[in-house]
What we know:
about 25% strand; Lyase, Ornithine Decarboxylase, Chain A, domain 1; 12 helices; TIM Barrel; elongated
Amino acid sequence: MKYLNKSFSVENVRVEYLAKKFGTPIYCYSYKKLKKNIIKFKNNFKSFNPLICFSVKSNANLNLLREIRKLGCGADVVSIGELMIALKAGISVKKIVFSGVGKTTRELDYAINKNILLINAESKSEVIEIEKIAKSKKKIVNIGIRLNPNTDAKTINQISTGKKEDKFGLTEKNFIELVKYSKNSKYINLKCLSVHIGSQIVNNLPYEKMLKVIDKIIKKSNQIFEFIDLGGGIGIVYNNKTKKLNYKKYNISIKKFLKNHNSKIIFEPGRSIIGDTGIIISKVIYIKKTKDKDFIILDCGMNDLMRPALYGSNHRIIPVIKKNSNSKKTYEFVGPICESTDKFLTSKNFQKLKEKDLIIICDVGAYGMSLSSNYNVRPKPIEILIKGSKINIIKKRQKLIDLI
Ligand code: LLP
């Protein structure tokens, strides 16, 4: 993704052309970037050849999942819907793990029928429920148990999941008890210890601490795990203030851990695979001037991209057509929704815009479309995947008629 002759382009396709042809807002992804991210992820950890289960919650587009499958990944799912989409994308059941604190009987039943690789249980009640279903089917079910390592991921509070006050996983004591219980069950085959301490992690220390805790607890529990599922969480660079996780260091800590444990590593990355592959193309509807700043009112709102409203996150905004002019303005980019949090970014140094100009919101591939809603009875945007010069519509724009 770059400017070609001052016109922002995804691979060989000018974004301006897409806006004219399909209207705005548009979610647009680059295949090249997706492929590059997956190859890079694999290379970073190639010495221990992990199973990479793409976290479907970050982006559940069927066509993207098909591409992700072709590039060798499995799936991490958290609902029957996500499991169905992963299967429809052709992902092998041997590469699917099912996480989540509240799997219903129907969801467990479906997953057990499909013989997926692992159901990662998060409570004793869930293990008992799995056992009950397995018994009725005279089956032995492969499970993992999610540990809550009580490790602060040092990320945004709302997306931290590994501290003892969080609802996820089991504390050390409960984990060890549940390992004992599962060992004695005829219908359960305990294969995996899983963790996931949070998302958008850019600091290596939490991962190092997490691995130390796992190491200690495995020794205490006296259990050999065929798999260690380290979850996802690796952060991406959203702006020049974000730090970068040191992959080399993370790789070294895992290799050190594996010296004492003969297990296959599973990762559940979402954002680090898909985050920077996607943009939103949006149009300026109106410009409203005030004394201190001008409001740039876009045709894309918090229903299309929730992250700024939910977490105060900053997605870079850039113009589609770069101009040479030196005059810079202070702009507040907002959506059309009747909420004060429907606000994307304040920029103090933006090139002068006029109504009907196009802008790009960057790095929205993860938790962009998947968190979108129909709030204010607004149809969801079209999704487009660019491969070289080829434009693939991978999801049609919702029609008003579908909503009314
Ligand atoms: N595995 C589990 C069990 C998870 O809960 C998550 C994310 C992942 C894997 C993938 O994590 P990732 O590699 O994408 O960081 N909506 C928030 C992020 C919520 C993450 C929830 N769990 C956001 O937009 O920042």
